[in-house]
Each structure stands twice: as C-alpha cells, then as structure tokens.
Design goal:
By secondary structure, this protein is an all-alpha fold. It has 9 helices and no strands. It has a single domain, classed as MetI-like fold, CATH 1.10.3720.10.
C-alpha cells in the first residue's frame, strides 16, 4: 500500500495538485459567498424581527436537504461544472453562519447597550462598536463550521464535473483502489483540520480583547 501511494504521487503529482487546487478554490468561493450573504442576513434578522422566522426556516430547510441532492438540483439551472457546485455549497454554508451571527447579535448584554447609549453613541455606532465586536466570536464559530462542511461536501462536486478531490475518491471506489481512497480521504480530512486550525488562530489574533 505504501509503495502504491508513493508511486501515485511520482506518476500523478501534477494531477493531484490540480485536484487539490480545484477543491480549495471551490471551497473558498463558496465560503466567501456564504459569508457575504449570511452575515448581512443575520444583521437584518436581528434588526427587523419579522424577518427572523421566515429567513431562518428557509435556510434550515436547505440544511436538511442532502448535499448531493442540492448539487443535482442545480443541474437544470446552471448545468455542470464549478458554478452549480459553488452555488450548492454556498446554500449549504449559509445556515451556520446566519444562525451564529444572529445569535451573537441577540445575545449582546443589555447593560453593554445601555452603557453605549450613556456614552452618547448613536444606534449605528452601537452596532459597529459594540454589537458586532461582541458577536464576532460566534460569527467566527459559524464560519469555521461552514468551512468544514463545505470542504467535506465539495468531494461530491465531482459528480457534476466540478473536479476536486472527489474525482480521486470516486475513481478509487470505481476501481477498488484503496490507495486512491486513502489519498483522497486523508487530503480532505487534512484540509478540514487546516480550516479549523486557521479559524482558531484567527480568533486568537482578532479577539485579543477577550484576554484583557
């Protein structure tokens, strides 16, 4: 097995690098798009309470739908390739970011807002300087959860021609090649762990005020 894995990298190193790059690219695009949608949506849900229930319900329903089903639902609309995969992964990633952002903004202690008002802050300043900074830990946790889910689900994107490490995994399944399954599976696991560690470091860097 060890020699098979070494031989694969010797003969298919460039192909593996291409699949890894595709996987990372699709995952990053989906995470960025999800953040750009979910964070403002979380703010709107807290700012306008009437939006909370319908928006949360919509994205919770999307979260229940299996990843492969969402990918396949994109086919009639966007065809095959990276575009439908990125859209489907974005829809999967929005719920944890939205829910955490909304929860973080709602859980800001009332006395903090009263203090901000006593200091003469306008409502807008209170949002920018009090609510969002205090909600940031939960927002980052939502981003971390979304990143891990995207990386894992992106393996299915190869089913609609988007490439990525899923190509390697499904080839291994089709050919009964354990070495390919190990290379693909371990690579996806490593990317997921790396994403989690990245957000851990990001939280340590950004949230220094928590240790003061």
């Amino acid at each position: 097995m060890y020699h098979q894995i070494i031989n694969y990298f010797q003969t298919n190193g460039s192909r593996f690098q291409e699949m890894l790059t595709d996987h990372i690219r699709i995952s990053l695009c989906a995470l960025l798009a999800a953040a750009l949608i979910a964070i403002p949506a979380g703010f709107l849900c807290v700012r306008f309470h009437a939006l909370q229930k319908p928006v949360s319900t919509l994205f919770r329903i999307l979260r229940i739908i299996p990843s492969l089903a969402i990918l396949l639902l994109m086919l009639p609309v966007l065809g095959t390739g990276s575009a439908p995969a990125a859209v489907a992964l974005t829809l999967l990633a929005i719920p944890p970011i939205l829910e955490n952002t909304s929860a973080g903004l709602k859980e800001v202690p009332a006395f903090m807002l009263e203090t901000a008002d006593g200091l003469g802050m306008t409502p807008r300043q209170a949002w920018v300087k009090v609510r969002f900074p205090l909600a940031l830990p939960l927002t980052l946790a939502g981003l971390k959860t979304a990143a891990v889910e995207i990386i894992a689900s992106a393996t299915l994107a190869s089913k609609i021609g988007a490439g990525g490490l899923g190509d390697l995994i499904f080839t291994g399944i089709g050919l009964f090649r354990t070495d390919l399954l190990l290379i693909g599976g371990i690579s996806v696991a490593f990317l997921s762990l790396s994403a989690g560690f990245f957000f851990y470091l990001l939280e340590k860097i950004i949230l220094k005020y928590k240790r003061i």
